[in-house]
Amino acid sequence: MSAEDDNLVRRYREGEGDAFAALFARYHRLVFNYARMTLRDASAAEDLLQETFLAVANGAERYEPRGHFRAWLLGICRHRCLDWLARRRRRQKIATETGFLVLEAPVLDSPRQDLQRRERLDLTLAAMGKLPDAQREAVTFYALKELSYAEIAEVLGCPINTVKTLIRRGRLRLAKLLAKADGIPS
Fold first, then answer.
1. What is the CA radius of gyration of the chain?
2. Which of 128, 117, 126 is nearest to 167 (CA)?
3. CA atoms of 92 and 79, how far apart (whole Å)
4. Domains of the chain
5. Mean of the pLDDT values across residues 23-28?
6. What is the mean pLDDT of the chain?
């Protein structure tokens, strides 16, 4: 799909808006899912989805086809997510220092019949939040099943074997955390 993506980027650079629409249609779910898993906030993930594709539109001239478009796209999303998390930490620190409590509205995006699935997702996301950053990112990319090990390595800027190790260790730790949450002795 990389050659197709490269062709779409080239066509977008030449002024074909339909090419950008095709890239968005192909990757918007991947970007949203990554942002949602990283931020644990559907509303913020929507914002980051828009910011990411705006950055792609504005930075298409800088894309070099020697890499993978998906890795480049998710690298942009990853940096936007890290910036968002840093801003949230600063806001929380200021709120704590000034004595103001910042409350965020709960996200109600699941129907009632999905309650059990939603609870399991919440447990999984909470457990993923306990993983070291590198493991969490590698496991997230792996869980989305959209990237190869090589593409994950490209996004994270590390060797493929490191990615494999991060995923293996992250999945093992995640399994232990989920078993503990379910009351299963390890």
1. 18
2. 128
3. 20
4. 1-105 (1.10.1740.10), 110-186 (1.10.10.10)
5. 94
6. 81
